Amino acid sequence: PYELDDVRTILEKAPGVVVEDDVKNNVYPMAINAEGKNDVFVGRLRRDYSAENALNMWVVADNIRKGAATNTVQIAEYLVKNNLINRSV
């Protein structure tokens, strides 16, 4: 099992992730706020009781910016950083 606060902390420290999760004050991710941004916005973090380690969250992003261009660059950087591809110049 996991602690919800631990999940929140991990997400808050993740580069490119913005946690917006304050239900009492109506703060949660909305697609309109993600428009034109490279970040991924997450919120509504809660346990999913259908499985022991399951988690539900609401995730939004600008699918043109994040889904295409930024995501491609981040994947390439990850592959190089973790020596999963050879760099040939």
Write the topology of this structure:
Elements: H1 4-13, E1 17-19, H2 31-34, E2 40-47, E3 55-60, H3 65-81
Parallel strand pairs: 1-2
Antiparallel strand pairs: 2-3
Explain what this protein looks like in three dimensions.
- It contains three helices and three strands, in the order αβαββα.
- The model has no long low-confidence stretch (mean pLDDT 86).
- The protein has helices at 4-13, 31-34, 65-81; strands at 17-19, 40-47, 55-60.
- It is globular.
- Helices cover 35% and strands 19% of the residues.
- It has a three-stranded mixed β-sheet, covered by helices on one side.
- α2 (31-34) links the parallel β1 (17-19) and β2 (40-47).
- It has a domain at 4-62.
- The chain has 89 residues and is α+β, with helices and mostly antiparallel strands.
Summarize the structure.
By secondary structure, the protein is of the alpha+beta class.
What class would the helix/strand composition place it in?
alpha+beta
CA radius of gyration is 16 Å
Bin the strand percentage.
Answer: 15-25%
- Give unreliable regions as ranges: none
- Which term fits the overall shape? globular
Biggest sheet overview: 3 strands, mixed
Order of helices and strands: HEHEEH
On the 0 to 100 scale, the average pLDDT is 86
Features:
3 strands, alpha+beta, 3 helices, 89 residues, three-stranded mixed beta sheet
